[in-house]
Every structure is written in structure tokens, then in C-alpha cells.
Write a structure and sequence with these properties.
The protein is mainly α. It is built from five helices and no strands.
């Protein structure tokens, strides 16, 4: 049991670290090329996959541009929408889910499998 607990604890720390990095990035409130590059790096190191990361970042850029968002709260909401748009409901079948998942915000828990393997989405 000790081995699996270490793995679970490690995954929780990773999830918390990802959430912290995203919150820290959004707190700056400047949505320029550096912001999008940093977000891309966070998503890629979170094993979201290259294609999904590109789609999420492009989707978010467009949403921020269209709404002329300049504040952290609205930008975070738009990121949640971009994640949902790209990853869709068909991937909502895993136990693990990051804190920024829209369903976790609404229901307090979720089964969405945002973590991806390699360069493509997996269920």
C-alpha cells in the first residue's frame, strides 16, 4: 500500500503545482505572447499533448480577443471554456481531474480525464 500511496501523493502534488502555475500566470493579467507561451509550456508539461495544447491556446486567444478580456477572473473562465471546447465530454471518464476543470467548479467533483499521454487525446 505504501508504493501506491506515494504515487497518489505525487500525482496530487503535480495537480496542485499545475493549478498554482496557472493561477500565478493569470494573476499577472497581461495576455500577450509571453503569457500564451507560458500557458503552452504548463499544459505541455502537464501531459495535455501537443495538438490539444495548441487548440486550447488558440481557442483561448480567440476568446480573449473577442471579449477584450483584461482581468484574471474572466480569463480563467475563458480558459475553462477553452478546455471544455477542446477536450469535450467524450473524455469525461477518469477519476483524476485538475482543479480548474469546469465540472469540478460546478459539482465539486469530476471524472474528466484532462491528463493526456503523448501528443494526442486519450480517454
Amino acid at each position: 500500500m505504501g508504493f501506491f500511496k506515494k504515487i497518489i501523493d505525487g500525482l496530487k502534488k503535480t495537480q496542485q503545482n499545475i493549478g498554482f502555475q496557472i493561477k500565478k500566470l493569470f494573476k499577472v493579467g497581461i495576455f500577450n505572447d509571453d503569457f500564451y507561451e507560458n500557458l503552452e509550456e504548463i499544459l505541455l508539461t502537464s501531459d495535455v499533448g501537443a495538438q490539444a495544447t495548441e487548440e486550447i491556446v488558440d481557442n483561448l486567444k480567440e476568446k480573449i480577443r473577442q471579449t477584450k478580456t483584461v482581468d484574471e477572473e474572466n480569463a480563467t473562465r475563458l480558459l475553462k471554456e477553452a478546455l471544455s471546447d477542446v477536450l469535450g465530454d467524450e473524455h469525461h471518464d477518469r477519476q483524476a481531474c485538475p482543479q480548474f476543470c469546469p465540472r469540478r467548479q460546478k459539482r465539486g467533483s469530476c471524472r474528466r480525464g484532462y491528463l493526456q499521454s503523448g501528443s494526442g487525446r486519450t480517454a
